[in-house]
Write a structure and sequence with these properties.
The protein contains 23 helices and two strands. By secondary structure, the protein is mostly helical. Among the domains are: about 190 residues, no CATH class; about 90 residues, no CATH class.
Length: about 475
């Protein structure tokens, strides 16, 4: 494959993926910024993304990849065509319904008003009348509607429940091709997730053919196919995470002369998009910290180790910005999620717990960065290669805990007082009839049972570091 910037007019597949990433990041961030400013117009977002991509293409020469890991169109196109057979046409949730309906309606509101702020036409109509106060008193409870929060200040503003980047993609397609095309934005992101999962697998395995096989397995995966048509954020989150990890793996796996710092920038920006897609991005932070700290004590290539450390710091800073974004433009939802997530561990003192944890991580990071040969650094270096060996055992313990939970769910009354289970009478404590509804069994069926078993078996093998990371991911 010919490489641009070396006297040829064609781009390698990797160079095309690099430019695709610039387009995705530009469209995502421009769309969110314009949405919070009340200036969202789909053609404008598209034009800005195309302009940024074109400038990047003109100013940044393509970088070649290792021949063994570089994908070609013969690896990518057939996998995408097979994937489309199971993903067209996506579901169109015009009337709402739980999370998928809320995302669809957020996109519709964004196309209609060009703003993420929720407007109440009835309240505007009654403004200045004697009925306005009564209308507000009787209707502005929290939540105003399922998925629409009422602020606790005197202004009582309405706020959508979720973050806004995924609705931006739905609104982008709806604004360009009509309301019925909104969910095609999800279809597009699902194909992106397959392409970059394939690229990540190729990089970690050292084989473009194995990468294509991994992409094909994801394309055929029933769970991925379902969520590629069902407008929630699981697949968009996968898309941005695979982009981020793929460019990070390309940087880590490249030789000193072929390594490009811009891959770290693209990786960090992809994670920024992930953090603006799903509030649970904090689940990635332990892995990001590990990828920043461990190379400082085990990698003999100091330039690469420092680059990984800077990437981790930048990515965590972008996460902090996403938290600020949520507290400003999705405040009730953010406060609820953080309190529900961390109070289970830290109780009412969970903010202090998080602060103490952050200070501890900062102290460890600072010591390892300045003195990688310290006692702490040597301990991390000793522990790091041994942890993957425990992954298989940990997975078996998780499955055992899941089996115990299924038994309690199906053959005892332990879940009868659960508020969520109470919404579905006859679901729990019904013996084998309840087992069929257990989440672990449902996940196995959607992943396909043989793939689930294969995953559990592979986790028991002592793979190399890259292989262990792929199985863990």
């Amino acid at each position: 494959m010919l490489i641009a910037g070396e006297g040829n007019s064609k781009l390698s597949t990797d160079a095309l993926l690099e430019r695709l990433t610039v387009f995705l990041v530009s469209a995502s961030l421009a769309g969110v910024v314009l949405a919070v400013l009340g200036l969202f117009f789909a053609p404008v977002v598209l034009a800005l993304a195309v302009m940024c991509t074109w400038i990047y293409h003109l100013r940044v020469p393509a970088a070649s990849s290792s021949p063994s890991t570089a994908s070609t169109m013969l690896h990518v196109v057939p996998v995408l065509l097979i994937a489309l057979c199971f993903r067209l046409l996506p579901f169109d949730y015009a009337m709402g319904g739980q999370d998928q309906g809320l995302y669809t309606n957020m996109a519709a509101e964004l196309v209609r008003t060009h703003d993420i702020a929720v407007t109440d036409p009835e309240r505007q109509h009654l403004a200045g009348t004697t009925a306005a106060a009564r209308y507000q008193q009787e209707n502005y409870i929290d939540p105003f509607l399922p998925g629409v929060y009422t602020s606790k200040d005197t202004a009582q503003q309405l706020t959508f429940q979720f973050y806004h980047l995924f609705p931006v993609w739905l609104a982008l397609f709806a604004g360009l091709f009509g309301a019925s095309a909104a969910t095609l934005g999800l279809t597009f992101l699902s194909l992106v997730s397959i392409v970059f999962f394939q690229r990540l697998a190729a990089q970690l395995s050292g084989s473009a053919r194995l990468g294509a096989a991994a992409g094909l397995l994801l394309a055929l995966n029933p769970l991925h196919a379902f969520f590629s048509k069902f407008p929630v954020t699981e697949v968009p989150t996968l898309a941005f995470s695979t982009i981020g990890f793929a460019f990070l793996a390309m940087y880590a796996g490249a030789g000193e002369g072929a390594r490009r710092n811009r891959w770290l920038v693209l990786s960090a920006l992809a994670f920024a998009c992930l953090f603006l897609t799903r509030i649970s991005g904090f689940m990635y932070l332990p892995l990001i910290v590990a990828l920043g700290v461990v190379p400082q004590v085990v990698d003999k290539d100091r330039d690469r180790a420092r680059g990984m450390g800077r990437w981790a710091l930048a990515t965590m800073a972008l996460y902090a910005l996403s938290v600020g974004y949520g507290l400003v433009w999705s405040r009730p939802y953010s406060q609820t999620i953080y309190a529900d997530s961390f109070s289970r561990i830290g109780g009412s003192q969970w903010p202090l717990m998080l602060l103490a944890l952050a200070l501890a991580v900062a102290a460890v990071w600072s010591l390892v960065w300045r003195r990688p040969d310290s006692g702490l650094g040597r301990s991390i270096a000793w522990l790091a290669p041994r942890l993957p060996r425990l992954m298989g055992i940990a997975l078996l313990l998780v499955l055992l805990a899941g089996a115990i939970r299924i038994y309690a769910f199906a053959f005892s009354d332990a879940f009868n007082g659960n508020a969520s289970v109470a919404l579905f009478p006859g679901l729990a404590a019904q013996g084998w009839q309840s087992v069929a509804h257990a989440s672990l069994l449902v996940v196995m069926m959607h992943l396909s049972p043989w793939l689930f078993v294969l995953f559990v078996v592979l986790a028991q093998y002592r793979l190399n570091g890259a292989g262990s990371f792929l199985v863990f991911f």
